[in-house]
Specification:
The chain is α/β, with parallel strands linked by helices and about 375 residues long. The chain has one domain: Aldolase class I (TIM Barrel). It has 14 helices and 9 strands. The termini are far apart.
Length: about 375
């Protein structure tokens, strides 16, 4: 079957197989792939709107013992420039976000052996006590962080997630997925969770009522076969739980990392977006990665399958540590979306639309 026939299969509403996806990845006709990705995007999100959220990325610590070779952000325990933000500093950062009408805190860090579950419970309760009436949402941690937190706190994964939820954690981001094959994970992060462990943490989160997103970091040591396996495994779990709200593909950023290598270009990104949108027929949203691709390519990706522009971020430390420094204000995000012929709409973490109000400044 050629790529055109596979795209038509997707347009006809037939689920694509792993072999179909391999055919698409061998195709360099971006116009054809865009046709498929855009059609599925419009089928799942028919209105000509592109959503975004006003939020802030807060890295509560940079201390991590795992030493992933693709990460330029971490510092090992005991490092002189390792840090843990105080509750007061985190609340100050959230206040700055709230002053700009922000509602989502993306809170992530590293696997810090000094931080047990009680630290997070106290922090989350403090955030909700101060900002709960302002509608602030905690989109926090990642499967690797949660699994490690459960282990060092000597509790089950389910108990850990329930306690975090009860303390105020609203949802979990899909960070740390990288590529969900053990061949790739053993090569780039051998001390981190396995593909099955990552998926099982998401399965458990969904079972206790906590929605999540899911990511894919491609372009390190992965092959197209690895990428296809990643998409198929994500789709299979979504069939089982329905807990993924959005898929976010982004390219590996090599600068300053131990792994090194090359940065995948715009052609590969747009191909990945289109194929992912056709493959993941059960995930409602695909988010553009302007943080890694820049606003222009993210804008183009809206015609390849993306229907969401992510968060204003306000600050970003992990990707920028690897040499990627794009930043956008609310006004710029809306301008880019309108220039592509879409209507910008603000949303919550769970993709509920919210009414527009005037923004008190740029993020």
């Amino acid at each position: 079957m050629d790529a055109g026939a596979v795209v038509q299969k997707a347009l006809d509403g037939v689920r694509l197989t792993a072999d179909d996806l391999l055919v698409l990845w061998s195709c360099n006709d971006l116009t054809l792939l865009a046709q498929g990705g855009d059609a599925i995007r419009r089928r799942k999100n028919p209105d000509r709107r592109v959503t975004y959220i006003i939020g802030r990325n807060i890295n509560y610590t940079n201390v991590c013992w795992v030493r992933c070779s693709f990460c330029a952000f971490y510092r090992v325990p005991g490092s002189h420039d390792g840090y843990v933000l105080s509750t007061e500093e985190i609340l100050r950062k959230i206040q700055e976000m709230v002053d700009l009408e922000g509602i989502e805190v993306l809170l992530q860090g590293g696997l810090n052996p000094r931080l047990r579950i009680e630290w997070f419970e106290e922090l989350f309760r403090s955030v909700k006590d101060v900002f709960g009436t302002r509608g602030v949402l905690l989109h926090a941690l990642s499967p690797a962080e949660v699994r490690y937190l459960a282990r060092i706190s000597r509790i089950s994964l389910e108990e850990c997630l329930v306690r975090l939820r009860e303390a105020g954690m609203d949802s979990m981001p899909g960070g740390g997925a990288e590529i969900l094959t053990d061949r790739v994970r053993n090569a780039i992060s051998p001390l981190k969770d396995t593909a099955s462990e990552w998926l099982d943490c998401m399965r458990t989160a969904h079972a206790v009522g906590m929605p999540t997103t899911v990511t894919m970091m491609y372009g390190s040591v992965d092959t197209v076969e690895d990428r296809v396996e990643h998409l198929v495994r994500v789709r299979s779990l979504q069939d089982e739980t329905g807990g993924f709200t959005a898929f976010i593909p982004w390219s590996y950023q090599p600068d300053g990392t131990e792994l090194g290598g090359h940065r995948a270009g715009a052609h590969e990104y747009l191909k990945t977006v289109a194929i992912s949108r056709m493959a993941l027929d059960n995930i409602p949203h695909v988010q553009a990665s302007w943080v890694t691709q820049g606003p222009r390519i993210a804008q183009i990706s809206l015609d390849y399958g993306c229907d969401d522009f992510g968060s204003t971020m306000m600050e970003e430390n992990v990707v920028s540590a690897a040499g990627c420094t794009f930043a956008l204000s609310v006004e710029e995000i809306e301008r880019v979306i309108r220039a592509a012929g879409y209507e910008p709409r603000r949303r919550t973490t769970q993709y509920h639309l919210i009414e527009r109000t005037e923004v008190g400044g740029s993020c």
